[in-house]
Amino acid sequence: MEAQSPGGTPLPDWHTLSAEEVEREVGADLSGLSTGEAEARLQRYGKNVLREEARESRLQVFLQQFKSVLIVILIIAAAASFLAGEPLDAAAILIIVVLNAILGYSQEWQAGEAIEALRKMLVQHAVVVRDGERREIDASGMVPGDLVLLEMGERVPADIYIVEATSLEVDEAPLTGESSPVDKAPGRLPAGTPLAERSNMAFAGTTVVNGHGRGFVVATGMETEFGQIAGLSQRVADETTPLARQMDRLGRDLGLIALGIAALVVVVGLLQQRGLLEMFLVGVSLAVAVIPEGLPAVVTLTLAIGIKTMMRRNCLIRHLPASETLGAVSVICTDKTGTLTRNEMAVVRVRTADTEVAVTGAGYLPIGEFLAGEKPVDPLADPGLRQFLRTVLLCNHATLALEEGGWRVFGTPTEGALVVAAEKAGLSRDDAPEPEKEFSFNSTRKRMTIIYPEGEGDVAHMKGAPEVLLARSSRVLRGGSVVPLTDELRDALLAELDEYASQGLRVLGAACRTLPAGIEWTADTVETDLVFLGFAGIVDPPRPEAAEAIRLCRSAGIDVIMITGDNPLTASAIARDLGLSSEGALTGAELEALGDDELEERLKTTKVLSRVTAEHKLRVIDVLSRDRQVIAMTGDGVNDAPALKKASIGIAMGIKGTDAAKESSDMVLVDDNFASIVAGVEEGRREYDNISRFTRYLLSSNVGEIVAIVGALLLGLPLILIPVQILWINLVTDGLTALALGLEPAEQDVMQRRPRDPQESILTRSAYLVILILGVWLGLLTIYVFMGLYAVDLDRARTMAFTGLIIFELYNVLNFRSFRFPLHRIGFFSNPALILAILGSLALQALVVYVPIFNAFLGTAPLTFADWGLLALLGLPVLLAGEVYKILRLRVRSGSPASS
Ligand code: ATP
């Protein structure tokens, strides 16, 4: 079927048209649309979004809850009870089944909502021209006719007809499968040109990997090629986390154990010549007792709440497993610029072959002086300075604009700082001719060049790492004329460069060249035989909070390695400022010369890697992961995408990161701030601790139930707890307290322990021991309560056992708040949710014991005040024992009785 415009007329084959024809067709020109027109078009064409796959409906989510084996067992149990003439039992079980489904439904729906909310936060931005001005808008608001600016690293936001391109290359793999980047340039193409060869079009869903360009939006949303062929949505994949898989396995294992024990007990019971129906009920009770029904719900809810908490700490989790991996991170490889430093740059010194000047001023305000010594100078009167400033301004994409909050830079801060310096001198790019060609910057080249027509010929303006430029320069501008660059001057400049860098300044050089007529323009032919102009020293102060975060990492056993494209001396100076050792620092070139084993050894002590490229980052990950390290790696550029994918957790910068980096990451660092990564790690550790706390707590409760049931059976007593009562404990009272345990604040020393081993199971051997000891204790205590009463009044005896077990559990939950610290150390009231959960559980139990309808359903009978008192007294030692154990252990460990 031929594509149609919303008006019903067939859409043209855009690639066959000229730029003028496209302008006519989309009703727009190079001054962009007006805001009013854009709004009208948005109404007409709809938002620029791909149709989302419909989320599962509420009913579907609810019905899914009935798929588990446990539910099937319970429904059979209910049917059996009904047939055996116990309609109330049957109804009670069914009510619990529905309650379980409602709980499961609400937690799953909530988790879905959290993920949905995250998806919405991953909005894409695009730069368009509206009302004749450049504006950054949410890509969903783009309409056909919008004039879009495409920059390196951006995801193409719609289908675009290109009218201007400078070295524009696009990765079209998501659309065509073609893995190498495709060159894009304006100009009409013959009809029938296949999609993959339409070089005058940039398609939605592809990524700009080089250069920049402009073009008109010709199709948005589902009308784009991407929307039409795929109908795909940009969903964040719903992945399971390693922890969730561990939990699933645990659930399955417990299910099998449940069946085994239940079958065995039924056989024993039958041998004891008990009735078939009674034994059937015992079997069902046991199956219910073994499985921690509340656990999956509590885990999912805790993770969902955790994602929101991470977001508050500026860590936007893109893949669920990331929140867990974050807690296990053992080494963080971080960029310097913008992550450890503020990325608020300003040129403070400029060195040319003739002179050195200091530059004054504040922020991006383009007002300041050039001082030689103490004396102000006019930079435009000095030919060397003037040419230096002109070149860094022309070889530049940043623009400066006055906005409400002050001056703002569009573009990178490094380039912005250079524009500000040039404007302080009174230069402007307004009257510059259109550039003819560009060789873009990337962190491997460490330089960029833009060619402009000048007079009769063409001049290449270049900026980049000074040593890279010096190596390509044969001449220098000195005393207003171009003279050969002597070795002596080269060495003097390099020495001065080192001096700048040792002060932590970021140093950027400039060079230019009048191009000989008739040469072919390639990076190799153009970027050689240059005239060196000088370099600028740019300050980029370290973030104050980064030093503290690095200290925290050290105490938490996490290695921090600064991996930067910047100069080794600059990197080392900044590292020292931040309290990172610069000893044994390596450059990319040195790293290449090392074998894997040597590098592995060196990385144990090296904290600074400078002048590295994206390939070096990959190698570092390879070598570090030999040691089973859990590696967090930050990145922002297009080139960083492979490293971000390869690291255990790839972290893309939220502000300066490209779309390409964000899409390859597991987590986006909203504020680009290193300290937020560390906050995320702390949160990850807290979550993991809490999940292991409530898992152990719930399992100890299950052991208690099993011991009570099996023990009573072996002692020849009647069934001690009926299935509904066990379900009530597992789902309601334990569920509440377990959920509250998930909100436990981080332990005081959460960042003073070494990272956990990612292979380690959440249930260690000592965990099993604690679960077993406490479980057996609670089980025996429950039997004890039951034994004294069952012969007199079975219902009351069961109610005592039932209520007793709950009260014992409420003491027990306090044991699990910390595995190491007694309550007075963590604070009785430091988890208010748990206090509420305990009071809530008691209130619910009172309801069950005293309200007649619950008596009927849950087989309970009213208790006296003394009964409650007795149970409270009997349970107290459970807590006391835990406390005494922790206090003693702390004393033994610290070696001195006074220090705990
Ligand atoms: P980090 O890797 O910590 O973010 P970085 O920004 O210095 O630090 P790159 O972006 O890889 O790392 O830059 C490497 C070098 O390239 C810089 O030290 C600088 O000399 C040079 N450089 C950076 N930006 C530009 C630019 N826009 N144009 C020309 N050269 C640049």
From TrEMBL:
Domain Cation-transporting P-type ATPase N-terminal: from-to ranges: 13-86
Listed GO MF terms: hydrolase activity
TM stretches of this protein: 66-84, 90-106, 254-273, 279-304, 703-721, 727-746, 767-791, 797-814, 826-853, 865-885
Name of protein: HAD family hydrolase
Bilayer topology term: Multi-pass membrane protein
Keyword tags: ATP-binding, Cell membrane, Hydrolase, Membrane, Nucleotide-binding, Translocase, Transmembrane, Transmembrane helix
Location(s) in or outside the cell: Cell membrane
Pfam families: Cation_ATPase, Cation_ATPase_C, Cation_ATPase_N, E1-E2_ATPase
SUPFAM superfamilies: Calcium ATPase, transduction domain A, Calcium ATPase, transmembrane domain M, HAD-like, Metal cation-transporting ATPase, ATP-binding domain N
NCBIfam families: ATPase_P-type
